[in-house]
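Something for you to look into today, if you have time. Could you write out one complete protein record for me, on any chain you like? Leave the record below and I will have a look.
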Amino acid sequence: MTSTRSSAKSSKKGKLDDMTIKAVAYARGYQEALDFFNVSVEKGLTESQVEAQSKKYGPNELDKTEGKSMIALILEQFDDLMVKILLVAAFISFLLAYFDDENNDEGMLAYVEPLVILLILIANAIVGVWQETNAEAALEALKSLQPAHAHVLRNGIWVTLDSAALVPGDIVEVRVGDKVPADIRLCKLRTTTLRVEQSQLTGESVAVSKDVDAVPDDDEGSCEVQGKTNMLFSSTAVANGCGVGVVVGTGMNTEIGEIQKAVADAAEEDQQTPLQMRLEEFSELLAKIIFVICFVVWIINYKHFFDPVYGSWFRGCVYYFKVAVALAVAAIPEGLPAVITTCLALGTRRMAKRNCIVRRLPSVQTLGCTTVICSDKTGTLTTNEMCAVKFAVPSSASSAGVLNTYNVDGVSYTPVGEIRPSLPPPASNTTGLAEFAKCAAMCNQSRLRYSNEPGDDEDVDDDTETDTENGDATKKPKIRRTGEPTEAAIRVLAEKIGCPDKALNRRCLQSEDRSAKDLQAFSHYWANLCSPVATLEFTRDRKSMSIIVKEKDRSENTLYVKGAPEVILERCTTIMMPDGSVKPLDKKMKNIIFDDYVEKMAGEEALRTLGLAVRKELDPRIAHFKGIDDDSKNGSLLKDPANFIKVEQELTFLGLVGLMDPPRPECRPAIDSCREAGISVVMITGDNRLTAEAIAKDLGIISPGKNAVSLTGREFDQLSDSEKTAVLRRCMDEQGGVFSRTEPRHKQVIVRILRTLGEVTAMTGDGVNDAPALKAADIGIAMGISGTEVAKEASDMVLTDDNFSTIVAAVEEGRSIYSNMKAFIRYLISSNIGEVASIFFTAALGIPESLTPVQLLWVNLVTDGPPATALGFNPPDLDVMKRPPRKSDDKLISGWVFFRYCVIGMYVGLATVGIFIYYFVLDEGAADGHTTVTLWQLMHWDQCHAWGDSFTANHLEGMIPGDACSYFTYGKAKASTFSLTVLVVIEMFNALNALSEDGSLLQLPPWCNPWLCLAVINSIGIHMVILYQPFLASIFGVVPLDIHDWALVLYFSFPVILIDEVMKTFGRIVVDRQIEAMHVHQAELRQEEEYAQKGNTEKME
């Protein structure tokens, strides 16, 4: 009748076609879908129809995507501005080395500079290609979800075929344990009920009942996936029952296909990470600065092009062009790409120790600047293990409609959890609590089992002991369920209540070390007292299921029933008291129980509530029924499911059970930590609104009594673009919100809008339905244990413990990594600015060259390298999780930071040039007995030959005999050694300064990072080797230093510590103001919540 009415009604709607059949089949009668494909459920498609459909729609497979070629991957690694700058510098250096006659004597040493740069870039490209080739497998994981075979009706014969051979119009049968092979419009149920587990697709925490009736929908095609109760979706699993339907969507034209399209689209839209964007901006700035400085240095030396010392103006021009190139080499941090990669790699190792596996290297620091976490509910914020968290049983005052309510601890299927207030086990088998526990255990088709792996179908044998009995706690298997989650939760409740057997209670009640055979000890106790006779399966119309049992101490059968509380109460005529006696249950008492208990549990607390009841006095045909096979005469009443409701009448009420997928216990403090760190948490789930809001309030995502943001997917759809943006901006202002009944496309839209608002978005999830949003977010975080392969492959990082609180630890690690990256960038760039300043001052003053290109390259790659890498081991700043998160558009180098770079860099330049000038002009106490000159003579050294015999200089090693002017060229080795050593020592002090951006060395002393101390010692040691090893000293143009010289080096170097400490003081003032502003905002939000709660309480009173 229902089908006929729906078909008649649908005739007024638009005509079905190839484009609409899959989208609107749920809103039409199944016969209309059969007519569209010209097929019947009795015959199926013919061979000719299959051939035609196959040509039209293609195979039932997801699309295969072409990967990038190796050449394309390699070229991508060089598509970076910093890399291009280095390539140009290497090319120019190579040309100058090749065409300069003076380099002929140096041989291959003249090419050291360009070769080293090229080797760094090649190594970086190899790492990048390796990451790319291991990154993309999400689409392949989607394909693995599709079932291999399907049971199909062809030409009137049921056959098993590869699922790829299915075509729209095929008649398919699915039964318990099957994966659905395509999108199917259900036509017929072969059992009283059919339930499908589709949580990985929709986020619903329980299996969904399916039927054949059309879904009323005035706006066809607008119904969310969860509302299509007559549709079976590809790759979902049948939890129980059996049904037949017609295929309406195959391959990419399925819900799972839509997800693949969304994942592919999100992959194409994949944007640069905040770090990559900031480095790109930094490279552009650096390129402009390098060009300007090099050009200025070249131009200001124009007059020196004509100096006779160069032989001709062209050679003078080329010489100063080489100086400009040396300046560029000094300005470019050659080691920066390698050090960044090393720092990120070190970060991944630390995060792995904290149960977070990083799949994409740049995402390590992205998490550190996260401003909002969009979290799935089921399996992420909750355990995805249904639990009985509350139950209510009649009290001695139940004649007035009063029940005793108990809260039950526990967040998994482990049968351990305190019952509050304390409740002793049943005193005998006939008490009200005993009947309640017996009903929970017997009216139940689930069972508990030990299993070593998620989804492992192999149980630990009931006749064997678990590893826990041998004291091996590390290998303790996890308790899992077989059957419906709600029934498993009720069975666990029965195991927590206990039984009258005191010895069994002592051994098993609240015991964490039950053996496999004792896992259901109390269920077995009740099963030994009564044997099952027949099960009256759940049907959608009567909203209940029941079991007939034969109790050992009774001559007649007993009926135990569970179902929707309003239905159970309606059918009850009596209520069982705590002592086992029975009293009448009138309409007034029913209303009190419903209003005061059912409404509160199901409505206010959003619990999935069930009622339990028993019937002792049965119809004579049922009272002495022995089973379908043994008693076909009396069993005739039970052959028709329509008669089940007649049996379930005149019941005795036993109590209520409140079930929920409980929040993970560690999530609440983790979310509080997120708020303290200025990070908003938004729940996006496919579950219903009441459940989502209850979990969100429990976890502190939204506040009770406050008009917080809570929308369903359909409500969100109906908003305009500006309204959607306003809603999400409000979520950020209130640091929380809830979106329920969502589909994958809703999650993607939410993530995209948040990104347009400038928020750095992290998306967590474990289901197939989460994959597109995981891919679209700045950083996708998948659950490692409960997560599907699709979610893991679409993510940037995977939590190995499925623990939301691990994200908070990862955020702290990410912030620390970003701080460390800024530290070594600050270290490298301030050092390079110092080198640029040194060359600039040298050229501007006209004094001899204090640092050679080979010395600069040595400093940049060798002595700077170890400290820069060691900065990756810096401990987190003391207030790292109290600072507000940085925005995605925050510059890597802000105006203040650039000013600090310049101040430190200018001092480095002044110190290196200053000690060079000091040696020539003022250092009269040096042991080498060198000649001091005036500053004017030093600045006009290139005119020395015009001074004639008026200028004399003591002979030093390397000078040309009889040529006093060679004092400024070959005799400058000691002065150049001073400049190089001051540069090295200052950079070591700079490395210590870089321990913290704003923290004083008095707060974070050098030994907080022992690796940095070792690196500094190593770099000083390497520098001393080239000073005191004659062969290396000749290559680098340096000489040994004595005690007097080292004291002079320290005088010029140590002030950099004092200068940076002053800078840090100002930096701390700015950070303190930011933290104070964030805390004021949070205090205002808390005050609003308190007012809202107070107002809600007064309203209730």
Q: What stands out?
A: The domain at 387-449+478-628+637-660 is CATH 3.40.1110.10 (Calcium-transporting ATPase, cytoplasmic domain N).
